[in-house]
Amino acid sequence: MAIGVLGLTVGLALGGVVLLGTLGFVLQRTVDTEAFRTADAVALLAAEDALPDPLPVAGGQVRVQVVDGQGRIRAASIDADRLVPMVRPERLDRDGRQRFEVPSERVGLVGPVRVVAVPTGTAADPLTVLVARSMADVRHSTHVVRTILLVAFPLLVAVLAGVAWRVVGATLRPVEALRRGAEEITGRAGTGRLPVPASADEIHRLAVTLNGMLDRLESARARQRAFVSDAAHELRSPLTNIRTELEVAQRLADRTDWTAVTANLLADTERLSRLVDDLLLLARLDEAPPARGAAPVELGALLTEVAARYPSPPVRVVPPAGPLWTIGTVEELRRVLANLVDNAVRHAYASVVLTAEAAGPTDGPAVGAYHLVTVTDDGPGIPAADRVRVFGRFTRLDDGRARDDGGAGLGLAIVRELVRRAGGTITLTDAPEHGLRVCLLLPALPAQDGQALTSHDAALPPPAQR
C-alpha cells in the first residue's frame, strides 16, 4: 500500500510538472505567433512605404517600433517609446526573425516582455519591425494552474490513498479468512475446509483449489492409515505363529519335533518375507516415477518363459501367430504375468491358459494400438460386483475363489500399479465356459521397430565398456 501510494504521488508530481511546462510552452508560442502576425503586417506596410504614424495596433499590451539600420525609430505605436528602441541595434540580425526577453521597464509594460524582430525594407534602407507583448497574462495563467495543482494534488493523493486502502482491504480480506481457516485446521490437526469467498475471482479459485488439495491429502492420509493398519495386522499373523511355535517348542522341551517346528518357522518366515517385499514394492511404486529402463519386449517369448516355471498341465500357452512387441520393463512385466499365473494356478480346477494376440486400435480408457494378453482359469471365478474391489490392497473375498493360501491380498494391487506404469489396462471378465479371464492390454510396438531396437541394443558393448 505504501509503495503504491508513493508511486502514485511521484507519478502525479511528474505529471503536474509536465503539465505546467507544456502549458507555459504553448502559451508562449501563442504570444510569439500573435506578435509575429502583427510584425508581418507592419513589415508589409513598411515594404510598400506606407507606414502610418502612429502605427495602428490593437490592445494595450502591445508595443511596435520600426527601427532603421542606425537604430533610429522611423515609426512607433501610440504607446511606444520614440527615442529608445526596445532592443539594442547591435543585437538585431538583419537577415532573420528573432525572439527576445527584455526587461519590462525598457518597454513600459507590466511583467516580463516578449519581443520579436522581423527584418523588412530594402538593401539600401534596411528596417526592422519590433513587436513587444507582455507575458503577464501567461505568467498569471501558469501561476493559477500551479496554485490549483498544489491545492488539489494533496487532496487527490489523499482521496486515492483512501480508495486504494478500502479496495486493497476488501481484496485481502478473503486472503486473511483463508489464513485463519488454515490456522484453525492446523491447530486442531483434523479435517476441515477453507472458507470460499462468494466472488468469482482468483481468490475464489484459490480457495477451491486449496480445498481440493485438502480433500486429496485427507484421502491420502486415510488410505495411509488403512494401509498401515492392514499391514500391521498382516505382519502380526506370521509373527504370532512364529512366537506360538517357539513357545510350544520351549514348553515341550525334549518332546519337541524340531524338524516340524523348523519347517513351520521357515514357512512363516517366507510368508513374512514375501509380505515385506510386497509392501516395499508398493511403496516404491507409489513414490517413484515410471521406470526409465523401458525396452522392446516380445510377449510370446515372455509368456513361454513365465509358463515354464509351472507344470503342464495345468498351465498351457497358446503361442501367437507372430511376434508381438511392446515397450516396458522386462522385470515388471514378468512380475505382472507371474502374479496373474500364481493366482490362476491357486484357484484353477484343471487348466490355466495363457494367450497373446494383436488387439488393434481401441477406444475407451485405452486409445491406440494394443496387444491383448489373457490368463484364463476354470476356477470358481469372481462375482462381477467384486471385480474392481479385488485390485485394492489387502482385499480378499470371502468365497472359495479368493481365499488366498497364505497370501496378503497384495498381488492384484501390485499388478494394477505395474500395468499402469507400463501404459496398459487390466480387466476381469468371465471365461468362455467357466472360470475367470484376466484381460491385459499393453501398448503395441510394430514388429520391425521392436526387432530393430533389439538388434541395436544387442550390438552395443556392455555398459562397463561404453
Automatic annotation (TrEMBL):
It catalyses: ATP + protein L-histidine = ADP + protein N-phospho-L-histidine. Its EC number is 2.7.13.3. It is an enzyme of class 2 (transferase). GO terms for molecular function: phosphorelay sensor kinase activity. Pfam families: HAMP, HATPase_c, HisKA. SUPFAM superfamilies: ATPase domain of HSP90 chaperone/DNA topoisomerase II/histidine kinase, HAMP domain-like, Homodimeric domain of signal transducing histidine kinase. It comes from the Bacteria. One of its GO terms (cellular component) is plasma membrane. Residues 169-222 form the HAMP domain. The chain crosses the membrane at residues 6-27, 143-165. Keywords: Kinase, Membrane, Phosphoprotein, Transferase, Transmembrane, Transmembrane helix, Two-component regulatory system. Residues 230-446 form the Histidine kinase domain. This is histidine kinase.
